Amino acid sequence: MKKKLTFLSVVGARPNFMKVAPIDRAFRKYENVNHLILHTGQHYDKNMSKIFFEDLELPQPSEYLGIGSGTHAEQTAKVMIEFEKIIDKVKPDLVIVVGDVNSTVACTLVSVKKGIPVAHIEAGLRSFDRTMPEEINRIVTDSISDFLFVTEKSGIDNLKKEGIADNKIYFVGNVMIDSLKYHLEKSENSKIVSDLNLEKQKYILVTLHRPSNVDDENILKQIAKMFSDLPIGYKIVFPVHPRTKKMFEEYNLTNHLNLNDRIKLTEPIGYLDFLSLMKNAKMVITDSGGIQEETTYLQIPCITMRKNTERPITIEVGTNILCGNDFEMIKTEAEKIAGGKNKLGNIPELWDGNAANRIAEILYNKF
Ligand code: UD1
User: Fold this and answer.
1) Catalytic: 209?
2) Which of 46, 160, 165, 211 could cross-link to 215 by cystine, CB 3.0-4.6 Å?
3) Backbone phi and psi for residue 150, each to the nearest 5 degrees, phi listed first
4) In Å, how far are 14, 206, 223, 284 from 265, measured between CA atoms?
5) pLDDT digits (tens, 9 = 90+) for 22-43
């Protein structure tokens, strides 16, 4: 009989919640695993955090660090200081981290130095762009973690090239797609499309929050202008991330956007409503990592406003097209999609809704 195991999963920012929810469900099947959730509080607004716990049926975190915003150094350092105290109190057998946010790297560093093994879910993704904070977080986290769970085969190659031993790498599929599949039916009950006065297939969904797009005044102004160039006959719905909202206000763009009656700016939207918005959109324009994957699974055309992606499978197999800040290219690709001339994607290998079960089984058998 195995001893009782304590596994501690870390969430911090919006894209983490949908990755840990299926992990939590998978561990419920193991009687002698006590799966705990710790929230660093990197994201703290109701619509960036609490609503996701409700929508995803995620249990309340047993620990909350209340870190909030700050510079990268401040945020990372604060998480490290507070997380160390939790490790001393909870004494987990394993720490599980997901994705690439500052909370991911901070908790990994603390755990490893305390001698606690770390499992990194969504390991091996590389944009090869070290100006992205997430790329640094990914490289550091992967280099010191013990179990590396990979969503797509490029991740295996990247890790091997960085000298990671084969026996640490597991190709298991995508936990974000586990959540999507699990909640898709429930999202059919969402009224968001009609509440926003939209018609299915008659709108373009936009999300932008990366510093490379929203922190630069010149680019942000061009983005604001870009909306007028998108195919006519489509409304534009744009849930605005707090960082983007701040920059729109700083550069006096909010009023300009509100004057365009095709554009609907909204607060950040909950998980189920957002699934519904994605599924019924004609196309999505984004700079998010997760949305590139979700649109690939839903087979909705996706224009990514980044020069690179750490998720190349979404281009090779899925519906994703990289346009960076080439506004002519965005216009041309959007017109192609509106005219039904877009590429049709397929669903990547192992994106089948069972990644978390595979991960739980592997980890359980290791202890
Ligand atoms: C973080 C992640 C990014 C992820 C994104 C998803 C890092 C380095 N970046 O970026 O990888 O794609 O989350 O959203 O970890 N703010 C609020 N309320 C909140 C959260 C943030 O108002 O609940 C505001 C604050 O003013 C803050 C700014 O948004 O300064 C940015 O938040 P932060 O956590 O620093 O990074 P994100 O841009 O959200």
Assistant:
1) yes
2) 211
3) -110, 140
4) 19, 10, 14, 15
5) 999 999 999 999 999 999 999 9
Identify the band that residue 94 occupies on the pLDDT scale cut at 50, 70 and 90: very high
In the chain, the domains with their CATH numbers are: 5-173+351-366 (3.40.50.2000), 185-338 (3.40.50.2000)
> Which of 44, 65, 69 is the best mutation target for the ligand 1 pocket, counting ligand atoms within 8 Å of the beta carbon and taking the most?
69
Atom of ligand 1 nearest to the CA of 49: 23
**Active-site residue, selected from the candidate residues 35, 43, 183, 209:** 209
CB 21 within 8 A of CB 181: no
For residue 134, the model assigns a pLDDT of 97
Least confident window among 136-140, 260-264, 278-282, 309-313? 260-264
